[in-house]
Design brief:
The longest helix is centred in the last third of the chain and has 35 residues, at 344-378. This protein is 35% helix and 27% strand. The strands form 3 sheets. Strands 3-5-4-12-13-14-11-15-18 form a 9-stranded mixed beta sheet. The chain has helices spanning 11-22, 48-56, 94-104, 153-158, 183-188, 234-239, 259-272, 275-283, 322-340, 344-378, 388-407, and strands at 3-7, 26-31, 43-45, 67-75, 81-93, 110-112, 115-121, 126-132, 135-141, 143-146, 165-177, 193-197, 202-208, 221-229, 288-296, 301-302, 305-307, 313-314. The chain folds into 2 domains: 3-45 and 96-164 and 294-370, FAD/NAD(P)-binding domain; 63-93 and 165-292, 2-Layer Sandwich (D-Amino Acid Oxidase, Chain A, domain 2). The protein binds flavin-adenine dinucleotide. Residues 3-157 form the FAD-binding domain.
Length: 417
Amino acid sequence: MARIVVVGGSLGGLFAANVLHRDGHDVTVLEKARGSMDGRGAGIVSHDALEAALGRAGLRTDASLGVAVPGRVMLRSDGAIDTLLDMPQVLTSWSRLYHLLLAAFPAERYVQGAMVTQFVDGPDGVEVQADCGGVPRRWEGDLLAASDGIRSTVRQRCFPDAQPRYAGYVAWRGVCEESVLSQHTLETLFPRFGFCMTDSEQIIGYPVAGPRNDLTPGRRAYNFVWYRPVPMGEALARLMTDADGVHHPQGVPPNRVSWRHIAHARQDAARLLAPQFAEVIEKTAQPFFQPIYDLQSERLCAGRVALMGDAAFVARPHIGMGVTKAAEDAVALAGALREYGATLEALRAYERLRRPAGQLAVARARWLGGYMEQAASSGEPAAPVASAAQRAHQTLHETAIDLGRYGHLSAFKTTNA
Ligand SMILES: Cc1cc2nc3c(=O)[nH]c(=O)nc-3n(C[C@H](O)[C@H](O)[C@H](O)COP(=O)(O)OP(=O)(O)OC[C@H]3O[C@@H](n4cnc5c(N)ncnc54)[C@H](O)[C@@H]3O)c2cc1C
């Protein structure tokens, strides 16, 4: 069995750690953050491939995974229901998945406060160096699995040309308590996975568990993601500057988003979106935003190093695949190690399987968000290649189709290797 050092202890790293640990490998996770990582993420769309990966990690899921919805609803900007689609789904959350995965992994092997600074990829193994609060420490392994996210230190050392590319729009996000919503919104929006589209913007939302994973009706919450074009340059720089004038080029921490930007966004929501969504945004205590990026690495392995999750590919969130893609990377890597042992051939087999899956995910998500990207670059609503109604229909159905399609890429098949 191999000694494996996993860099990054978020969902992707924890999936890898659990699956590899379960296969008998000697796994250590190095995570730079200290203390609770709760509050980092919000809602996560689950589907069959994610549940299969949880099973592979030895975790049995039940109704406590999240809120079950019967399908989707597209609202018009006046709040009327445009389309209903039957599509049962479970909406879980970052924190639910994090705690499930964390509890299943040996606590002494999950090292927090360890910021990996460099590594040496030698003929007999890797040596990983980390800064642990000013104290240098090192770990040795047969393989390094880099699950350190979109700005991966490991990727930047192996493949410095692979850089995130801003998509031209941001996602405003937030979670609103169920108990504060009006009866009308609770009836027409809350029970389903909701959508509303304008010529150049899009909002989606769905119910999630409330604090401490409370699924009791009345104590749940509503999670929204509102995509808005913001041209690169001055407009983006202004948005990325907090109320005290501090610029945050890598992302504004949620509690530092300027109240002026929030006030402005709320006004726009009331003007542009279905009133149900405007109400959710108005009543969300702390909306925040994230710029949307594409990232693809041409290579997923270099010597004894494998890239996984967002370190390898970032697909825009329209296909709701980020966590599942990371989980499938973990399953594929473990499958390759079962097949070839802890060898360079195993990592190459992993790359052959997961590179096409990542490329497909990035391309599909880019296509779904293309009209917002176009609006950002031209300053105009997208050219009407499809009417708003056609596009709404497409969005509602295409994301549904994707979830099924990507599931087929999940299993590790040596015939693809
Ligand atoms: C608006 C939005 C909505 C989304 N919605 C969904 C959704 O509904 N469903 C879904 O599946 N996905 C969604 N995603 C995507 C999802 O959040 C990510 O794809 C997923 O979290 C990838 O996880 P990861 O573990 O690869 O990376 P990350 O979660 O980024 O984790 C990287 C970890 O590495 C650590 N790290 C970084 N550098 C170092 C270092 N040098 N040393 C040690 N540790 C380090 C970081 O602290 C972090 O914990 C969404 C994303 C966005 C932006």
